[in-house]
Amino acid sequence: MTQLQNRPSVGREGINRRGSLEPRDPRSPRRSTAVALLLACATLITLDKTGGVLDPARRVTGEILGPAESAVSTVARPITSVPGWFRTRDGLKARIADLQDQNAKLQQQVRTSDFDRNRLAEYDGLTRTAEAIGYAVVPSRVIALGPAQSFHRTATIDAGSASGVRPDMTVVAAQGLVGRVLRVTSTTATVLLITDGDSTVGGRVGSSMKVGFVHGDSDLGDGGANQLELQLVDRSSIPRRGDTVVTWGSAKAAPYVSGVPIGQVTSAYASVRDSSTTAAIAPFVDFGALDLVGVVVPSGTRSDRAIIDADGRLKK
Amino acid sequence: MTARLWAMSGLLVVIGLILQVSLFDAFAWQGVVPDLVLMVVVAGALSRGGQAGMVLGFAAGLLMDVAPPADTVAGRWALALLVAGYVAGRFRQDVPTGRPSVTAVVAAMATCSFVATSIFALTGLVLQDPAIGFGEVLRVIGIALFWDVLLTPLVLPVLLTLYARADAEARRA
Description:
The structure holds two protein chains of two kinds. Chain A is of the alpha+beta class. Chain A has one domain (58-316). Chain A has helices at residues 2-5, 31-50, 55-80, 82-95, 100-112, 115-133; strands at 13-15, 21-23, 136-145, 154-157, 170-172, 177-184, 189-193, 200-205, 211-216, 228-232, 244-247, 261-271, 276-283, 292-297, 307-308, 314-315. A six-stranded antiparallel barrel of chain A has the order 3-4-7-6-5-14. A six-stranded antiparallel beta barrel of chain A has the order 8-9-10-13-12-11. In chain A, strands 1-2 form a two-stranded antiparallel sheet. Chain A starts with a helix and ends with a strand. Chain B has a single domain, classed as Arp2/3 complex 21 kDa subunit ARPC3 (Orthogonal Bundle), CATH 1.10.1760.20. Chain B has helices spanning 3-22, 36-48, 50-66, 76-90, 102-127, 134-172. Classes of the chains: A alpha+beta, B mainly alpha. Chains A and B meet through helix 2, helix 3, strand 3, strand 4 and strand 7 of A and helix 1, helix 3, helix 4, helix 5 and helix 6 of B.
């Protein structure tokens, strides 16, 4: 009894379950804390699942961490993107193996070019994309990629509301469709990639003009092939191998503008069970080496940086 | 934990998170990167015990849930790292030096990597966020485990030294 009255501090010692007095390590986990935190997790999950209650928190975090991510990637990209160039070159090699002489010439070009020339070529590609799809694009760089442990495919880009980027805008790269903007901060934007399992894009088979829906299949391998799945609305038509799939666009061009190339049909099969046609699509964009992307904005958007306009010119 | 230790842990978590998304994405193996934030949580729990590990895990997980480019339902990483912090706390050894043995560190890291990724994936399967296959989940858990154990000898000693030094300073003060 005296011991109980004279105990130095609450929590250090206590009567255990068997009724005997023994010192309690203050560092060992307390049950009350565990229960409180577990309940907090459950509350958070419920709140976020039912509505966007945590959007302000995400925004504030993005405003603070966005510039830091941007700074780290600015320093790291020139070094870390070097293996990326080799990877792209490998991909090129495989794709045009049958065009040996062209291949040799191309490789010569790529090998002799340095990092800056590669980057310049990327800008050129983006300019051509802006011309081809007939919209203005805000050029921007990928500064962070979500890890596969999250089972989501998202990226952060270094253009935000100050550059004229808004949620539900289309994001493209020189090769084709990348994704759409989920949310923005003043200097960054979070992009949902089309390879994400939750992503659905309206797609149209170029040769037959048949429409369908392109889903990401969350296959996170960076092999590049068959990361997308096309389900056609017209179940009788089967797309051919090599057919190009482009976006058919949404009302008011949000979230996807029309006519952006998505990928190529690699295989198609009809399911007998639910009488539907599914085609595997290899995206044109190499999602393992995303760097320069463009956000499609309406022509004449006010921006803090130069915009590539629909005629392919840089506009301040 | 003192306020200074919390501040240091917070800073380490933020640094780990930024490196994880902005630097290590270039070295990602099939999209999977080392869990640097988890390493900070494990180091904190190993040197400061399960109570601190749980709170640190919860806070770090919450940050991972809301920081760009995350688009997961908030609370999932918080839950996963909270449990990881608790589990890592069980590996803590009450030795005079305050440094856990190498086997304990590696075992703690491997267990926590498996536990955290699995819990996160399981909540994803329950919440359909997004709908993914079981094989895919196992593959990601395996690669993440490999990454984390691979980087443990490089990262954990540094973190544990930082915690031990901060601990000694706090005791002196």
